[in-house]
């Protein structure tokens, strides 16, 4: 009876997965085999492996890599510092609150900050310096992207650091290990699971950014997400847009597999 009851309770979950996960992916795969006239073709996949889309893919991976690296470099020390403070929950709340604000509003706020008549340029002119073109550059795109993704990198790293057994760090110090050796041999290996989760939450969405590339980078940065948007909304070539989406899904699955945490068990306090 328990087995039947569990199976019955899982029905809504299976229906949700089929309707909102499997079906959309299947439709994307289906439309990828049609050209702009609605004829069946494999040309979309052939075009994807042409020079244009391959360079676009490499560019997307490069920008996603940069965004992830800079986010990690900021998030890890920040998460470590938060674990050492007395007001952990308060600091976490202050980090999480900006993620509740609509992404479009935050993007327009940075347009005002980075614009030629924005806050930064006003400060530069006050200091007697010339106004600089900050908006519509690689710097502005990466900066805004890192700002947006930082909470999603900090949270899993904080959870991993907060669960770290402090006795292991104390033991390493008692044995004469330097702080760097302790970090490299003890802290990092035991928190790498949180880092992987943060990379998933940052790298994968960074591959498909499109609104920030349009508003902050002025379409000077083209990603796979931008290409999909243009194919669906501008050229109306749903087949090519679906093909790019298929490869984007494949890339995401590969990244999830590579960054998946295969370790079992947990690094809990105590038991030492």
From TrEMBL:
GO cellular component terms attached to this protein's record: plasma membrane
TM annotation in the entry: 12-33, 53-78, 90-114, 134-158, 197-217, 237-259
Topological type in the membrane: Multi-pass membrane protein
Locations listed in the record: Cell membrane
Record's keyword terms, sorted: Cell membrane, Membrane, Transmembrane, Transmembrane helix, Transport
GO biological process: transmembrane transport
Predominant location: membrane
Official protein name in the record: Spermidine/putrescine ABC transporter permease
